[in-house]
Amino acid sequence: MTSNNFKYSDDNKRYHTYNYYLRHKYGKKVFKVPLNADFGCPNRDGTKGVGGCTYCSNKMSGDYAGDPLDNIESQYNDIRQTLLKKWSDAKCIPYFQAGTNTYAPLNIQKELFERALKLKDAVGLNISTRADCINEEIADMLYEISKKTNLEVELGLQTIYDFTAKRINRCHTYDDFLKGYNMLKERGIDVCVHIINGLPGETEDMMINTAQTVGALNPHGMKIHLLYIIKGTKMHKQYLSGEVKALERDEYVQIVCDQLERIPEDVVIERVTGDGVKEDLIAPLWSLKKFCVMNEIDKEMARRNSYQGILVGED
């Protein structure tokens, strides 16, 4: 294997991993504790749309989050205790994961986020939401939170192409995304942008262009997800009818490596594959071997003798 001279690596990784970022920021292991505040989603209740995004489960991307019937303190403590069995002296980041976590009255948002700051061993706060659920008032509230902790807001973009967004029922445009994103960036709030590879109708070039375009916005972080087909979703029906196909593992690995080469090296890559629940996963089944997929990405980057950001400015 060729030598690894990547600036943001202590090991074999040739991209700027979230683990590297957290370890260097805090000096120890830090893990995220996924929470479900039961805020819902405007794409389900008729405000923006109904049924949600076609790939999204009934748990609204919170399959590993706590039980919304429990308060956030109970959720946090239960999940934290489980994870501490693996990392006994680690710190934690409360992560409002399920649903759209700026989709509630402002006072309720603020109260829950303030409560999260007081959780035991919490060193930051992550909030997952939609860019069209950011306005000036919410952005100001988040700015006040950011002055008290290490805040990161995660925005589910998935693709820069509006016709794909319409096909997956995202119910907001790329321009809508940019408006919400810029409100946060103007206030100095760290933003992580989610993208998905394998969305119906998209070519490899389109997926690469989404990653490159988002990278050029200079977000704090990016999550690269694999599209997986979940039982009971609208996309499950489309998959069964042949309207939607799942990527093969080798295809996915090549796409991710092509994307990493075009994302600036200082952007933290917080995820490089999906994480579907085994019992509900229809396809691709190879994604269940998550660490094998990550290892294949590492091997391909080494085979190319390549690094994150090596092609920035080249295309």
Shape summary: globular
Biggest β-sheet: strands ordered side by side in the sheet? 1-2-3-4-5-6-8
Helical region count? 10
| Cα gyration radius (Å) | 19 Å
Mean pLDDT: 93
Order of helices and strands: HEHEHEHEHHEHEEHHEEH
Number of strands: 9
Question: Could you name the ranges where pLDDT drops below 50 across 5 or more consecutive residues?
Answer: none
What is the percentage of strand-forming residues? 15-25%
Distance between the termini: 27 Å
Percent of residues in helical segments?
A: 25-40%
Described by strand count, sense and barrel closure, the largest sheet is: 7 strands, parallel
> Structural class of the secondary elements?
alpha/beta
Question: What does this molecule look like?
Answer:
The chain has about 325 residues and is α/β, with parallel strands linked by helices. The chain is about 35% helix and about 15% strand. The chain contains 10 helices and 9 strands. A 7-stranded parallel β-sheet has the order 1-2-3-4-5-6-8, sandwiched between helices. The protein has a two-stranded antiparallel sheet with strand order 7-9. Helix 3 links the parallel strand 2 and strand 3. Helix 9 crosses helix 10 (about 290-305). The longest helix is centred in the C-terminal third of the chain and has 14 residues, at about 290-305. The protein is globular. It starts with 17 loop residues before the first helix and ends in a 12-residue tail after the last helix. The mean pLDDT is about 95.
